[in-house]
């Protein structure tokens, strides 16, 4: 299962494009609302999440977590004990963590990207700790996959499909999206 965390003020494209790509690849994806099931994006789009954070408990089925950006969504994700606990769970078990736009700063503030190649929204690149900031659209280094922003959300989602399912599955999803 892939958990995609949504907090008030999230960027909807950065959240829903990866959800779409991963579900097209037949992955089980659960959106997790921080503070409840109904979460409103930074652009006024309200999404009904699969789970509220109070219902989320990481377990053996967890394959990846995804942190979308957006403001104040990223700040709300960062201050969530559930999100921080999910990051800790992933770190302990070497489970992949993906973050896009402003959200890689959550990892940077914890020093998790130190020595890694990473990318983020240009306004947040200085918050990646001691990461090697590539400026690439999407960057994968070990268990961390980072993306620059909303404009590369589909590419980011496809990179997650490739990471979890392989290149052939990613190419099939890409073709289904007529890219």
From TrEMBL:
This is DJ-1/PfpI family protein. InterPro entries: Class_I_gatase-like (IPR029062), DJ-1 (IPR006287), DJ-1/PfpI (IPR002818), Prot/Nucl_acid_deglycase (IPR050325). One of its GO terms (cellular component) is cytoplasm. Pfam families: DJ-1_PfpI. Residues 2-163 form the DJ-1/PfpI domain. It comes from the Bacteria. It comes from Bittarella massiliensis (ex Durand et al. 2017).
